[in-house]
Design brief:
The strands form 3 sheets. Strands 3-2-1-4-5-6-7 form a 7-stranded parallel sheet, sandwiched between helices. Strands 12-11-8-13-14-15 form a 6-stranded parallel sheet, sandwiched between helices. It is globular. The chain contains 17 helices and 15 strands. 44% of the residues are buried. Helices cover 41% and strands 17% of the residues. Strand 4, helix 5 and strand 5 form a beta-alpha-beta unit. The protein is of the alpha/beta class and 395 residues long. The two termini are 16 Å apart. It folds into 2 domains: 142 residues, Glycogen Phosphorylase B (Rossmann fold, 3-Layer(aba) Sandwich), CATH 3.40.50.2000; 190 residues, 3-Layer(aba) Sandwich (Rossmann fold), CATH 3.40.50.
Length: 395
Amino acid sequence: MCFLVSYLSGGYDIPIRIAYCTNVRLPSERAHGHQIAQVCDALVHLGHGVTLFAPCRRNLIQQNYHAYYGAERGVELRYLNAFDNNRYPMPLGLPGLYLANASLRRALRRALDSARFDLLYTRSPGLLPALLHRGTPVILELHQLPRLGRRSFVRNCNACTRVICLTSPMRDELLQWGVDASKLFVEGDAVDLRGFQRMPSTHEARTNMGFQTNRIVVGYVGRLKTLGMEKGVSDLLHALRITKAEQTFFGLVVGGPNQDKKQYEEMAKVLKLTGDDVRFTGAVPATTVPTALAACDVLVMPFPDIPHYRKYMSPLKMFEYMASGKPIITSDLPTVRDVLDETTAFFCEPGNAHSLASALQHLLTARAEAAQRAARARELVQKHTWEKRMQRILA
């Protein structure tokens, strides 16, 4: 009832009890774990009570959830005993995922039966059968769309109170599938600005990151691949090769995992890029990201033009880049243009290293304009904090 009062009044004076339900391992080194932690923290900052339900799974990360993410202690994490397909030496594929979700849904039903919540929230469509038809509002936040079972997926979406789409192309696709337009709401990811309030100087940041150079530092900061898909690091390396003779640019590639880092290090050697041209740091803690961004002169998001990036992504790095106050060069994709335009970033052709190299060279003669666009991006990102994002969603 208190959710209904808060919803109708459009305010947040009455705290509500929220169950965030996920089927992913927590803590996780992947971006989805970080995003879940940020959403739950934001809900607590808004004054609501949050219980996070997650499966109990084998985890190589030794720190607990709160220590790993620096998460709010007000978020109560409850692990549910369910089938763990990660405990088997051989990958079980889709059957293993089906069994894990079915087992988790049973455990989740029992857990929700033993407590009372005003709102159920998930980014895991596979859990919806355990959440719907309980008489409690359900918010589904979508980060990608399923390839199978479209009819039941659409039916479940239409049974939700609200379906959050990360991008407008995702919303448009769901409309074509038959999801009720009144259910759909576009809201991308966001950023925690607290880590960007006192950024170190460029010289100090480079010292902390273990290098110094007189060249213009071109930074890529974030996971090197998504679900095994390229994120454009190879295009950055080829762009550095194209501009190598000028000895103007230095690449800083910050991210992991280690196997992908080694792959790109080998690629750099093949391209005859040396330590004077590029540095790979590997993965760094989330708290180090502002320092890594401060060490750069320009930041790049050279995503290739493939369906995932064109339709579904709302990259966390984009909002972190904006918060850093550094000029941004990005692939020209509809998902990026949900947030950025020619007043806040420079664009290049996706998957085209020559286009990226040209954009970098253009910045050499457009430094004043680059500073202006970076300042506008930093101003714009003030609207994209996690708290403001979740406030809009709950309203």
